[in-house]
Amino acid sequence: MRPALALVLAAALGCRGNAPPATAVVSRADGTLPTVTAPRVTGAVRWDGRLDEPVWASARRVGGFVHPTTGQPEPASRVNGDARVAWSDAGLLVAFEVRDRDAQSPYPPPMRDAHVWERASGVELMLQPGDFGDNRDYFEVQVGVNGARWTTRFDDYNRPVGRDPSGVMHFGHEEWEPALECGTAKTSDGYVVEMLLPWGAVLTSRVTAPPRAGETWRMNLYTFRDGQRDSLAWSPLLGQGNFHRSTRFGRVVFGG
Questions:
Q1: Domain harbouring 124, CATH code
Q2: 70 lies in which domain range?
Q3: Is the pLDDT of residue 53 over 50?
Q4: Is residue 4 a part of any domain in this protein?
Q5: pLDDT at 196 > cutoff 70
Q6: CB-CB contact of 120 with 146 (8 Å)
């Protein structure tokens, strides 16, 4: 599906009733970029994956996931689900609810720089501050079902990528380590990943301040397992590249 390019801290097991209903997912094969208006929220969150705070009750669902290439619903996929989005003065809030009852990860919860996409069931947030219509200055956050994470930022489409003097491949600026607030939980239907990505970690030379109500940024969300052989997207790529093609990211509008 995608080359080997590519979200918290501790997993709370056995939580109840957090998975989304299995509602019908609408085709996104016509190429229209999906848009979600994220409400502005206040209030504390316990980062335990339970989604029982008022913040999450107010968050907006994105409407499920589709095949990354075709844009069609994939009922047989093992990584179907939904996500909720909101924002606060602190950062962007995203919660994934994935109906993968057999989600697995070899990585321990505290692990950072884990290649989640290669060996774990997990989720992915791609974020490009602003709505420029290009592929510059975007960020990637992956979290596995066990809470291991991988974070990086890119200057342009899949760049930089290269080997260090010891021969190890590096994807983007892997030294980027945001102060991510994150929690996971197993549910009866799968698992939940909730997170807050702070604004201060995603400012760029072009976007130098947190968003204001009414502004739009580019965002995409993915769920995956089995080395991403089974993967779904919020905004499909429709053959226009891999998961990093920000011109195919959907739009998040920051509501009041």
A1: 2.60.40.1190
A2: 11-21+32-254
A3: yes
A4: no
A5: yes
A6: yes
CB 198 within 8 A of CB 25: no
Structural contact between residues 140 and 153, judged by C-beta atoms closer than 8 angstroms: yes
The answer as to whether 3 is a domain residue is no
The token pair at 73 is 């619903």
Q: State how many domains the chain has.
A: 1
pLDDT in tens, 231-243: 999 999 999 999 9
Phi (first) and psi of residue 101, to 5 degrees? -75, -15
Kindly compute the dihedral angle of the four CA atoms of residues 161, 166, 167, 173, in this order, to the nearest 10 degrees.
-20
Higher pLDDT: 108 or 200? It is: 200
Contact 18/96 with Cβ under 8 angstroms? no
149-154 and 138-144 as β-strands: parallel, antiparallel, unpaired? Answer: antiparallel
26 falls within a domain: no
Residue given tokens 């008022």 in the structure block: 54
What is the pTM assigned to this prediction?
A: 0.91
Please report which confidence band the pLDDT of residue 23 belongs to, taking 50, 70 and 90 as the band edges.
low
The alpha helices in the chain, defined as continuous H runs, are 54-58, 116-119
How would you class 167 by CB atoms within 10 Å of its CB: exposed for 0-12, middle for 13-18, buried for 19 or more?
A: exposed
- Tokens representing 250 are 């959907």
Check pLDDT > 60 for residue 88: yes
